[in-house]
Write a structure and sequence with these properties.
- The chain is built from ten helices and 13 strands.
- The chain is α/β, with parallel strands linked by helices and about 300 residues long.
- α3 (about 125-130) packs parallel to α5 (about 155-160), α6 crosses α7 and α9 (about 250-270) packs across α10.
Length: about 300
Amino acid sequence: MSVMVVGSVALDSVETPLGRATEILGGSAVYFATAASIYTKVNLVGIAGTDFPAEHIQFLAERGVDIRGLEVVEGETFRWVGRYDFERNITQTLDTRLNVFADFHPKLPAGYESSDIIFLANIDPDLQYEVLNQVSGAKLRVVDTMNFWIRGKGESLNRTISSVDIVIMDESEVRLFAQNQNVIAAARSILTLGPRVVVVKRGEYGSIMVSDTDYFIAPAYPVLQVKDPTGAGDSFAGGLLGYLDQTKELTPNALRQAIVHGAAVASFTVAEFSIDGLRSLGREDIAQRYQELKEFTHFDDKEST
């Protein structure tokens, strides 16, 4: 079994009320691969410049991530600079330099097309669709996106969404895409395009899974100190899909369990800058928080008298 991720590889500079970090490892493909590799084999497709530190590539390789799909080309790596205001719940992008990522065109090495699960992180929906056409045998196809593509490439995004099994978006993106302020109604509207499941990310409030026959609401793990929320959504997806690939099940109950695994993994991500919270993370650590989340949300029916 294996999971393929197509997304960004970046060097981030982040400022939060708890500190500042410069030129740290980031990108949707990196966060996802780091999380999913705890569970299963990951095939990574992305692009970096010649300035991308060799130690980061070595880290991914040592995690067991197949990095044959990581192109390193002449130029500078994608960079993002941002500031978080936790009190007002605001994320401010101070600078975005696409650099070599501007000309990114996913290239799948031999064998990647046989990946069992495909995760298409936040990239141009036309590129996402091209990848989908190369992985016809995948058992599960999952897509993420952002407001930029919803506003600028709606038709292309509709085509991509109609070709996948699961859509993962944050709450504001679901509302924007469906033009409906009611999150549940908006998610159900997305289902009419073809996906079987919509997972709505709600940050510190957890997530909601919506299908034609099921609803599931999961909380976020109550982290005492959030240091850096960058990559939380991608590591959530990595935990979710990594678990599904490892269990080899796609039942409604397995999906519920996978979402809780994703929440547990993301809770470690936000506790440190970059992927530092995931570097030494083991399955036993995740299992403990999974069990705690189960206990936090358990309640008994009123006893009959």
